[in-house]
Amino acid sequence: MIKILLCCAGGFSSSSLSTKLEKEIKESNLQNEFYIEFSPFLLSLSKISEFDIIVCCPHLRLEVQKLVKESNPDIPIYILPPRMYGVIYFKDLALDVTDIIDMYNKNKTNPVHFPGEEHTLRITRNVAYRNYKK
């Protein structure tokens, strides 16, 4: 099972997004494969050991850089593309999360990003990276 911690600044947008994604997990009968929980970003460090990946809202990019510099967590951190964050579907998130975990396990560098997506705010896709056609 992949356990995902979804973070935003205060937990407000991530809580509603997490509820939507939990519903999609249940509707797709993926409860044995994925678990998602939301948290304000500032509380994420206290929960890191319980999760396989931290997925952050796009507006947290500076906070993520600071976290990585100061404490370098030993799980992957992924910053969602802005357009994906607004209309996310769990099937796309699941693909990205699986790919990000694989990438992290190969090089242990955070935050993890896909090739060509070093600048989060410039990413225009709203689907999983592997399904995106430029």
TrEMBL record:
SUPFAM superfamilies: PTS system IIB component-like. Pfam families: PTS_IIB (PF02302). Residues 1-107 form the PTS EIIB type-3 domain. The modification Phosphocysteine is found at C8. Keywords: Kinase, Phosphoprotein, Phosphotransferase system, Sugar transport, Transferase, Transport. This is PTS sugar transporter subunit IIB. GO terms for biological process: phosphoenolpyruvate-dependent sugar phosphotransferase system. InterPro entries: PTS_EIIB-like_sf, PTS_EIIB_2/3, PTS_EIIB_3. One of its GO terms (molecular function) is protein-N(PI)-phosphohistidine-sugar phosphotransferase activity.
